[in-house]
Amino acid sequence: MRQLRGQERAITGNRQTNLAFAEAYGAGTLDETTEAALGWCRERARQTGIRTVTTGTGAALRMLAATADAKAVAEIGTGTGVSGIYLLHGMRPDGVLTTVDLEPERQTFAKQAFREAGFAGNRARFIPGRALDVLPRLADGGYDLVFCDGDLMECLEYLAESLRLLRPGGLVCFAGVFADGRTVDSGVQPAEVLRLRELLRAIRESSALAPALLPVGDGLLCAVKRA
Questions:
Q1: Is the terminal CB of the chain with fewer CB neighbours within 10 Å at N or C?
Q2: Where are the domains of the chain?
Q3: What is the pLDDT of residue 194?
């Protein structure tokens, strides 16, 4: 790597500071009960080796759900409930989150977390199973937002299902598209990173979508389904 000169170092440092500030900006913006529930979720995730969305990613998901005035959201990858709490906070008060995960134990954690955050039991529908087995059973055009945080090797299939599930003007979002910097690394990369590159290309080139890549967390790829 070439040596950075003074001005370049300053620009790089400023960008890192700006990104850190943006990531932390949404922290503490929820009520104490919800923040406590999120802390509990993150601790369960740490204990079980599950990676959760960051505060910045969660804040973005909450904002996008609110922007879409979302009443119906589908989530691929329940985890311990962190992303679900953010999504539910952005959704309409009568909105329902349908969340899918291969591991029922994780959904048990999420159910408890949602209760602790103050959400009624009818605000979430938990479906255990493989996403590509579950998604075909969901209604065409019945969702305002689809959030994908599942198997990276299945991301293109998630995209195809999302396009079917979303209403015109609905949003699809993919977490973790930076893959810890590997997506833009020119070195040899594993199959899931190559798959992510295909996803990025497919969404950018699709005439059916208007995309944006948000530099929060490990990268949040979002796109609106055109009318």
A1: N
A2: 13-225
A3: 97
Banded pLDDT at 7 (limits 50, 70, 90): low
CA 162/CA 146 separation, integer angstroms: 6
98 vs 131: CA distance, rounded Å: 12
Place of tokens 């949404």: 26
pTM (2 decimals)?
0.92
> What secondary structure, in 3-state letters, does 69-95 show?
CCCEEEEECCCCCHHHHHHHHHCCCCC
Buried b (16+ CB within 10 A) or exposed e, 43-60: ebbeeeebebbbbbbbbb
Superfamily grouping for domain 13-225? Vaccinia Virus protein VP39 (3.40.50.150)
CA distance 44 to 46: 5
